[in-house]
């Protein structure tokens, strides 16, 4: 079936979605799950025969500011939820990435996709990832059954924790229809210390000292020279009441005085700086380059990048105190997969190929290859939730 003739389903409630999935499973029709389409190019190339969109599953279902809980249907634009929260001085704690600049996509990120990909930006070092704030989900499994797990109150879990299992499953286990998150208050003031001119090793040393201090960083990043500006910048963000910020900035400057005299960045300039770091904007161009997202122990980040650049030209920057490396390299051949993964095997960590041409993503494992025992567990979980293999087949791992 030519892709231009693919069927497209857009249910408007959970019951309709469940019926569509039951019928698709009955005829072994493979479905590509989509929300706003902003991350469509992440993962292995689509191996589907129809699309199932969450866009019709839209709307707020619960918001209790006093309890700091918000629920909405999965296709609700994320921007609508963020605007609603901002009106009440609240926010999603984990600062979700907007992939549109990096992926060159349009559309609107959706609330359900935040959970589906376990989205998190710079504040993860302080607030955790999306799954750490996700307390409830509703979804349709591969049998066309509507499942509810979790809810408004965080409870102890016995058996399989479906809330955490769905977070980061990239639509391979079910169609999310509703998600519930805990939220946090927006802080009165946000300020960033920007230390100029540090090399990678010194920068990560400084970030580790800041993160190890009692002064509660909510952002810790390093932009090498030529990434976002001509001079390297090492960035530490603090948030809170204004008097607390003044005190913490002063203490951090004293603690870190051996790393130089920092600039203080606030207001719109600070917000724009961290939005760029969150969204990997410094590496978005050139569009044809491959983009990797590497996770390792923060102190090993500079060793990992040094090992990669000894074999292949690359550009990069660090977030999460050095534990997250955004890296771009030529997409030719394997887009550097052998080099990147060898460097991480030596130091510990994993890598995701976020952006590359279809031919590369078909030939190279996009997500970190799993050891055989974990792959068997993964295949078993997939079979339990989606026995006919209808949801996003092969998106994360070939054959699953």
UniProtKB/TrEMBL annotation:
Keywords attached to this entry: FAD, Flavoprotein
Domain of life (superkingdom): Bacteria
Alphabetized Gene3D superfamilies for the sequence: 3.30.465.10
Stretches assigned to the FAD-binding PCMH-type domain: 1-186
Cited Pfam families: FAD_binding_4
InterPro entries to which the protein is assigned, alphabetical: FAD-bd_PCMH, FAD-bd_PCMH-like_sf, FAD-bd_PCMH_sub2, FAD-linked_Oxase-like_C, Oxid_FAD_bind_N
SUPFAM superfamilies: FAD-binding/transporter-associated domain-like (SSF56176), FAD-linked oxidases, C-terminal domain (SSF55103)
Protein name: FAD-binding PCMH-type domain-containing protein
């Amino acid at each position: 079936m030519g892709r231009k003739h693919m069927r497209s389903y857009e249910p408007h409630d959970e019951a309709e979605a469940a019926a569509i999935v039951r019928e698709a499973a009955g005829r072994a029709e493979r479905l590509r799950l989509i929300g706003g389409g902003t991350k469509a190019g992440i993962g292995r190339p689509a191996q589907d025969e129809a699309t199932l969109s969450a866009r019709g599953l839209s709307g707020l279902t619960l918001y209790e500011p006093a309890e700091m809980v918000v629920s909405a249907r999965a296709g609700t634009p994320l921007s609508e939820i963020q605007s609603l929260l901002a009106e009440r001085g609240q926010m999603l704690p984990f600062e979700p990435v907007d992939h549109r600049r990096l992926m060159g996509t349009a559309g609107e990120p959706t609330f359900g996709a935040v959970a589906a990909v376990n989205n998190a930006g710079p504040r993860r070092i302080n607030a955790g990832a999306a799954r750490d704030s996700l307390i409830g989900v509703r979804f349709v499994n591969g049998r066309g059954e509507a499942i509810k797990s979790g809810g408004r109150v965080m409870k102890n879990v016995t058996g399989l924790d479906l809330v955490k299992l769905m977070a980061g499953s990239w639509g391979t286990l079910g169609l999310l229809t509703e998600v519930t998150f805990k939220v946090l208050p927006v802080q009165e003031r946000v300020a960033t210390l920007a230390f100029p001119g540090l090399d990678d090793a010194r920068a990560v040393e400084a970030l580790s000292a800041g993160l190890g201090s009692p002064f509660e960083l909510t952002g810790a990043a390093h932009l090498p020279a030529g990434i976002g500006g001509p001079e390297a910048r090492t960035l530490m963000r603090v948030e809170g009441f204004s008097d607390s910020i003044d005190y913490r900035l002063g203490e951090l400057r004293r603690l870190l005085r051996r790393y130089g005299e920092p600039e203080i960045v606030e207001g719109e300039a600070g917000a724009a700086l961290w939005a760029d770091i969150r969204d990997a904007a410094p590496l978005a161009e050139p569009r044809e380059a491959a983009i990797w997202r590497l996770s390792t122990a923060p102190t090993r980040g500079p060793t990992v990048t040094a090992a990669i650049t000894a074999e292949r030209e690359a550009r990069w920057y660090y977030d999460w105190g050095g534990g997250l490396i955004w890296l771009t390299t030529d997409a030719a051949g394997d887009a550097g997969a052998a080099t990147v993964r060898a460097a991480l095997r030596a130091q510990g960590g994993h890598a995701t190929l976020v952006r590359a041409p279809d031919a590369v993503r078909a030939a190279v494992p996009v997500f970190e290859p799993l050891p055989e025992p974990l792959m068997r567990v993964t295949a078993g979980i997939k079979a339990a939730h989606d026995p006919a293999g209808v949801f996003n087949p092969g998106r994360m791992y070939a054959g699953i």
